[in-house]
Amino acid sequence: MIDSVPLVSADQLISEFRHGALVLLVLDQSDGEQTAVVAMAAEYCEADHVTFLARQARGLVSLALTEERCEQLNLPPMVDPASSGTVKLSIEASTGIDTGISAADRARTVQVAVAPDAKPSELVQPGHIFPVATLTGGVLIRTGAAEAGVDLATLAGLTPAAVFAEVLDADGDLANAAALVDFANKHDLTVGRVTDLVNYRLNHYRTVDLIRSGTITTRHGDFMLSVYQESTQGHVHMALSLGDISVDTPTLVRVHTTASMRDLFSVTSAEQVSWSIKDSLSCVAAEGSGVVVLINKEETNADLLAQVDAVLGADLPDDSQQRSVGYSQVGMGAQILRDLGVGKIRLMGAPVKYNALEGFGLEVVEFVEPGAVRRERYGVKYNCYD
User: Fold this and answer.
1) Where are the beta strands (DSSP E) in 42-107?
2) Domain count, the chain
3) Which of 67, 94, 181, 230 has its CA at 20 to 30 Å from residue 336's CA atom?
4) Are residues 56 and 130 in the same domain?
């Protein structure tokens, strides 16, 4: 574990950003693995910083920007516009550079992109700096390196933008914990965890508020309904809870986004087995306690067509990047679970890596796949959704 090097507080990370220093940000995965990026406030970025990121960290030199800044610069997504568009098409300053690949040229591009009055005409595409759009709400919504960088810059009173690069080993793979310790010591970098930044922001600011609550009756029995609203975009999310919820007792949990083919038509697929909202509520009822959180995410036409293609057996493009983005957007559900008193989680879903849950005071202790939860009827055990 990289905990073998001194870890600073979120306050110290903010101070380092405020003074234009490079820091090592550690991202904790739910499986115990750790990765890291080197990051700094974008407005301080100069050629020697780009050189360090490219030659020492070895990852792509990326520029974390708010979605508003991406819109200001009219930056298109690198992939299909119908997708989330988090990674934007690479950029280059339109003037004042040579080939664009040198450290000085890339630093110039960063400065042009983060200038208060920056215009789309001042950039060309593609280029050698890779913009990443962050989600409103920062690490409380998605616990990624880009969100952490923008949050630190914002908390430091600077332009909400950060330059960062992943730390890779000599083979081009993500550096493991031992290599990260050596890297931090070799370059005398301040080291902090995104988990601690999440906790800092939770203690100072949250992005969901409880606006309604009460008992409702469903076909699976009575549940406590808790309704939450985002302070950032106004979206409303709901949670149905049952029984006594305790921080120290593992709680059966489903964090659910609607998929019409699964939830409305009860379509199943051998290749894509997942929990429907009906099955989730049924299993919580069978267990006698638990929480089902429904995240209000609008389905696009592309989302619905992808579901149709999946159930019809069409060959689909690799969506691993989209899945990883979706899995990292745990902040909204995590805030709701924390408010409901959940601590240890038996998560209804496939085993995946979730970043920085510790910062929310949460820990996944078990992944529960469909069919794994059973109850008894007349002394006979059966699947709870049978």
Assistant:
1) 62-66, 91-93
2) 2
3) 67
4) yes
Burial letters for 310-321: b for 16+ Cβ neighbours within 10 Å, e otherwise? beeeeeeeeeee
Tokens representing 11 are: 């306050």
Element (H, E) at 134: strand 123-134
Parent domain of 151: 2-202
Residues forming beta bridges with residue 363, ordered by sequence position: 344
Alpha-carbon gap, residue 103 to 57, rounded angstroms: 14
**Contact status, residue 60 vs residue 126, Cβ threshold 8 Å:** no
Domain boundary (167, 186, 202) is at: 202
Please answer whether residues 97 and 107 qualify as being in contact, where contact means their C-beta atoms are separated by less than 8 angstroms: no
Is residue 195 domain-shared with residue 214, that is, in the same domain? no
Residue 48: Cβ within 10 Å count: 12
- The C-alpha atoms of residue 380 and residue 371 are separated, in whole angstroms, by 15
What is the DSSP secondary-structure string of 307-320?
A: HHHHHTT------H
CA distances from 178 to 5, 46, 279 (A): 10, 29, 42
pLDDT in tens, 70-97: 999 999 998 754 444 589 999 999 999 9
Please state whether beta strands 34-41 and 23-28 pair in parallel, antiparallel, or not at all (unpaired).
Answer: antiparallel
pLDDT for 223-233, tens place per residue? Answer: 999 999 988 88
pLDDT digits (tens, 9 = 90+) for 91-134: 999 999 999 999 999 999 999 999 999 999 999 999 999 999 99
Contact 25, 17 (CB under 8 A): no
Phi, psi of 54 (to 5 degrees): -75, -40
The Cα 164–Cα 64 span in angstroms is: 8
Beta-ladder partners of 12: none
Joined together, the tokens standing for residue 250 give 């593992």
